[in-house]
């Protein structure tokens, strides 16, 4: 029988042999190198976007701004986080299913680009995963989604762009550009949002200003052309459009459709007059997305979404396309042109 002392002496002798020492050192080095090369799990930012594919997504100015904003916070895609994307391809009815897929894949944070369908789908899918809304067009407090702007509570934070108040301002500006307008078509997407506050504010303003609002609904990007034909057939004096994810994603198409039907129109996003539409009034959307990157970075670094105040833009832009005005036969008053933050020629 071999006793413990014998085993100890045998082990010490074996370990003194050069080959054994080299083998052990090599094994230790391999193990250390393997540990050094094992990547830590990167946080995953999930999003369901209106784009048709990743190429279109990568060209979107809002998402470019958000990624640039994360860069401002010292966070780079592929090094500090990964994106997990789903594409609805202009079909908002897919937000529900695709958002649930994101939650099942256990993303660390969800970016719901806007309130309405994207945020509603995210809220129904999870009460625990942090949700950041870079551009909310609804009153989150009035709808009961958050407790207050300063202390949202729950798992939601983001940016609010005060759309209900802006709807009234847009009507006023449209009437300055087209002072004889009495019947105003209003293009909106009930599948995106009920826009309760927007309609309340806008109807009140219409009564004061003595104009008639004529609502027209659409739900998908494929509805835009036929509904624009229906609007043109009613021969309104002008058109305004509520803030909507489709209106932003397909700004060029909307500008073209309104121009072809010779409809003086005001929009929520400067992307539409930049693409040939008549005018817009609202916050700089890309700037809001860039600003929301601060909230995303703070959450990924350990803070709770419900502890981060919902922020608001401080600057609003009036953008007028002078060439579109000429094509439409609209004489923009010089006083309005002077007030514009940008004039597109």
Describe this protein's structure.
With 345 residues, the protein is an alpha/beta fold. It has three domains: 4-37; 44-161 and 286-307, Rossmann fold (3-Layer(aba) Sandwich), CATH 3.40.50.2300; 163-283 and 316-344, Response regulator (Rossmann fold, 3-Layer(aba) Sandwich), CATH 3.40.50.2300. It has helices at residues 4-16, 18-37, 54-58, 61-72, 95-104, 117-125, 163-177, 196-209, 224-234, 245-249, 251-260, 271-274, 285-300, 322-328, 334-339, and strands at residues 44-49, 82-87, 109-111, 131-136, 156-160, 183-188, 212-217, 238-241, 265-267, 279-283, 316-321, 342-344. α7 packs parallel to α8 (196-209). The protein is elongated, with a radius of gyration of 28 Å.
Short description:
This protein is α/β, with parallel strands linked by helices and 345 residues long.
Terminus-to-terminus distance: 99 Å
Number of helices: 15
Secondary structure: number of strands: 12
- Give the rounded overall mean pLDDT: 88
The CATH class designation of the largest domain is Alpha Beta
The SS-based structural class is alpha/beta
Helix content: 40-55%
User: How many separate domains?
Assistant: 3
Shape: elongated
Low-confidence stretches: 6-39
Q: Just name the CATH architecture of the largest domain.
A: 3-Layer(aba) Sandwich
What Rg is obtained from the alpha carbons, in whole angstroms? 28 Å
Characterize the largest beta sheet: strand count, sense, and whether it forms a barrel. Answer: 7 strands, mixed
The CATH topology label of the largest domain is Rossmann fold
Task: Give, in spatial order, the strands making up the sheet with the most strands.
Answer: 7-6-8-9-10-11-12
- Kindly report the name of the CATH homologous superfamily of the largest domain: Response regulator
Strand content: 15-25%
Order of helices and strands: HHEHHEHEHEEHEHEHEHHEHEHEHHE
């Amino acid at each position: 029988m071999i006793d413990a002392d014998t085993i100890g002496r045998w082990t010490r002798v074996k370990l003194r042999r050069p080959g054994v020492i080299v083998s052990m050192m090599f094994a230790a080095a391999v193990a250390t190198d393997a540990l050094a090369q094992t990547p830590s799990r990167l946080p995953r930012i999930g999003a369901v976007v209106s784009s048709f594919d990743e190429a279109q997504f990568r060209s979107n100015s809002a998402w470019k701004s958000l990624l640039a904003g994360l860069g401002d916070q010292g966070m780079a895609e592929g090094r500090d986080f990964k994106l997990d994307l789903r594409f609805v391809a202009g079909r908002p009815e897919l937000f529900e299913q695709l958002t649930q897929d994101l939650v099942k894949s256990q993303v660390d944070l969800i970016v719901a680009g806007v309130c309405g369908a994207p945020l509603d789908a995210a809220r129904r899918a999870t009460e625990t995963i942090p949700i950041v809304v870079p551009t909310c067009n609804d009153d989150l407090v009035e709808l009961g989604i958050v407790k207050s702007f300063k202390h949202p509570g729950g798992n939601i934070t983001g940016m609010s762009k005060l759309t209900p108040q802006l709807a009234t301002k847009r009507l006023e500006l449209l009437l300055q550009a087209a002072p004889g307008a009495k019947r105003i078509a209003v293009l909106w997407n009930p599948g995106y949002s009920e826009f309760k506050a927007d309609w309340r504010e806008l109807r009140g303003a219409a009564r004061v200003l003595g104009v008639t609002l004529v609502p027209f609904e659409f739900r998908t990007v494929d509805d835009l052309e036929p509904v624009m034909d229906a609007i043109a057939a009613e021969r309104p004096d002008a058109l305004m459009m509520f803030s909507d994810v489709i209106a932003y994603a397909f700004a060029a198409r909307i500008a073209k459709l309104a121009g072809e039907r010779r409809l003086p129109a005001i929009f929520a996003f400067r992307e539409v007059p930049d693409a040939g539409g008549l005018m817009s009034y609202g916050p700089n959307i890309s700037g809001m997305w860039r600003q929301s990157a601060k909230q995303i970075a703070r959450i990924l670094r350990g803070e709770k979404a419900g502890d981060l105040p919902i922020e608001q833009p401080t600057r609003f832009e009036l953008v007028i396309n002078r060439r579109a005005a000429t094509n439409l036969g609209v004489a923009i008053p010089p006083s309005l042109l002077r007030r514009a933050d940008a004039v597109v020629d």
